[in-house]
Amino acid sequence: MANVEMIRAFVARVLEDGGLVDGRAEPDSDGDFQVRQGSALYWVSSGQAGDDSGLVQVFGVVLEDVPLSRKLLTAVNEINRDYLWIRCFWHEGRLVVARDLAADTLTAEALVGACAQIGRISDEQDDKFKELIGAGHTFFEGDPDDEDSVEV
């Protein structure tokens, strides 16, 4: 049986040491860590797989409020074909990209790499999907580096 609290502590340390979070990494109410990259938001989750082994999942919501369509599924299949170790899927109006990592062999370098990959794909693909299907929205609309943007 996996020690989820030990895995979560390791994940928190890697997120902090890797500069993926500002300050201290704090889990949300589900025990997941939220990380922002550009217009995308992704999570790093510690848990247990069906065989009781430790699991770390890195997953991002590319778009929300997305209707299921043939065009969407074709684009999802292209991501699944083109990216190594990534799975993309539609679930309850959300377009999600995810990567699962075995906790017992996980290194800090591998976790930082998985975070970078999910963050990059989520941030790069959101506008492409929005344009393709004409629907959906990101967590953070607009360019965070836009001179007219104001952080409140």
Automatic annotation (TrEMBL):
Residues 6-141 form the TY-Chap central domain. InterPro entries: TY-Chap_M. This is TY-Chap central domain-containing protein. The lineage of its organism: Bacteria, Bacillati, Actinomycetota, Actinomycetes, Catenulisporales.
